[in-house]
Amino acid sequence: MSSTATHAAETPEAPVSSVDPPNPRLTAFWKVVVIVLTLLGVGGTMNQVFFWDLFGLSLPTNSFLYLIAACFLPIVFIVYPLRKKDAEEDTSPPRPGVPWYDIVLIVAFIAMALWFTVKGPVITEFGWSLVAPTSAKVLSVLYWLMVLEMLRRAAGLIVAGLAALVSIYPMFAGEVPIVFLQGITYDPVTLAQVHVMGTESIHGLPLQTAATILVGFMLFGVVLQHTGGALFFNDLAMAIFGKFRGGSAKVSVASSASMGMMSGSAVSNVLTTGPMTIPAMVKAGFSPKTAGAVEATASSGGSITPPIMGTAAFLMVSFVGVPYTEVLVAATIPAILYFLGIYIQVDGYSALRDLRGTPKDLLPKIRDVLVQGWPYIIALALLTVMLMTMPSEAQVPFYAIVLLIGIALIRPSVTFGRREIVEMLLDAGKSLGQIIGIIAGVGLILGGLSATGVALSLSRDLIVLVGENLILILIAGAAACFVLGMGLTISAAYVFLAIVMAPAITAMGVPPIAAHLFIIYWASVSYITPPVGLAAFAAAGISKASPMGTSIEAMKFGAVKYIVPFGFVLNPALVAQGSLAEIAIAFVCSIVGVFALAGAFSGYVQFVEARIPLVLRVLIGVGGFLIFLPQYSITLAGVGLIAVALAGAFVMKRRAGAGAVSN
């Protein structure tokens, strides 16, 4: 087993390269352009969050957002083509570089965004979002259309189609025959002004949050991976969990959880850790379908795992109006429960099939891994401590980035030269360009609903429709999240439902942070749920298993993700909304509940070390679900059902004379 240090330089590229071929559009020249735009964008963010006022630039908020758009959004036109080539129709190799029409779009957009940057103070002072000169009107229409095209390329036709439909909705909102969908009507030009020069659409709170907070955290995740973090966390997971039964799958769970803390992206997590973990699981005796399912399920936890989480978690900051640290604290217990549920099911699966761990002599030693990888632990610890103590959370990731890069440059065991720095900046630029492009485009959804006033009426009418029944609203919300999550990015689904669904849930007395986390959880289940299951399909591509079968298997391993959101909405102590005593009690009870639910789905209970029949599985599953409910009488009933099921399993084991499965 090679040490972390030995392979630090190849860690970021090795797993990805096998599934992510080089982009022919990124010739040497265009790589330089992407890197320059990325550095300018990151520099603009740092100038704003650190209040440097470099070159005398103290930009108002709208000018700053136009500048960020000028830096990052053109990267979408550089990286993503106008049309994905159909291999069956056109087998010719793609032409290298960016075609002339995309160059025109790039130059035009940068020029427009910089023009708006300069005019930012005037836009605010004279209310150009409603009354503007002809030049601003024309540029607003072009800007709006180009943002939609960027969204189509970065997120797909479905997301862009929804954004386009909702963004033009104010043009005919007054003519809609359905009462609760009626709203204020705008002419096309005024609507373009509202979208481009207003503060509640493209350049609204979501983009403001992304530009000030998300940029730093995304950059931290990229730097951590490119300085050897991915292989370190995989080696650490192997050293700790590899020796236990089903060790290769437990390594997958632990390493994917660690990668999730850095990236927050399910599919990229699969493509980074999957090529290492999936073959190891298959070699250890897991079926290809199960190996892919375990990896997909664990990787899909990235969007809910602190400290970086996914893009939607950063958008929560703007919608809920709380510091990002509060979101991190609230998300911690549910994330622990999610990965605990996967781990227990993997353990049960391994016990039933007698899948042993990896011999100790083939595993890296914990001491050696920690000696080589201590900078990554310090960086994450520093990030967490500073988030809890520093007044400006937007500044925190940049301090951790400086620490990581400094250590990488001076450590002889880590190769971090010019080539590695170039690749790191390219990855950062591509990631930030895509994400900020999506957030800017999805802002049109917010703008369309806000301009008409329909968002408030939708929430109000939804409450009337379900008769103020919280359970029905949650079920409707879960279904809406799932359906939208199948066709949209989590960010797009979250923005739409944060406007329409979250107010209805909070109106029932649910804390806002619990309501918004509920939406994020249920929007992200589409990563492992048929018929889409992007993370499961990506894992199936690596394991060579059936994509649909892998997705169905992933649903079973990720069952806790479907249940926990209902638990923390009904019992907000699970998202740190309550006293310390309430939080501690809820956490302990929920751990018992997760053990029970995992036993019900896997058919094996660790407390008894025995297989359980269907009747006891149903009994222990119902008991596990009841524990998540806040009423103590219901919780005690759940504990009672679990106790009865465990007692029954113990008696059956004694009668059968079966010995405990060794661990």
Automatic annotation (TrEMBL):
The keyword DNA repair does not apply. Residues 142-582 form the TRAP C4-dicarboxylate transport system permease DctM subunit domain. Keywords: Membrane, Transmembrane, Transmembrane helix. The keyword Transmembrane helix applies. InterPro entries: DctM, TRAP_DctM-Dct_fused. The chain crosses the membrane at residues 28-51, 63-80, 100-118, 130-147, 154-172, 210-233, 308-325, 331-352, 373-390, 396-414, 435-456, 462-485, 492-513, 519-539, 559-577, 583-605, 612-628, 634-652. It holds the Pfam family DctM. This is C4-dicarboxylate ABC transporter. It comes from Corynebacterium yudongzhengii.
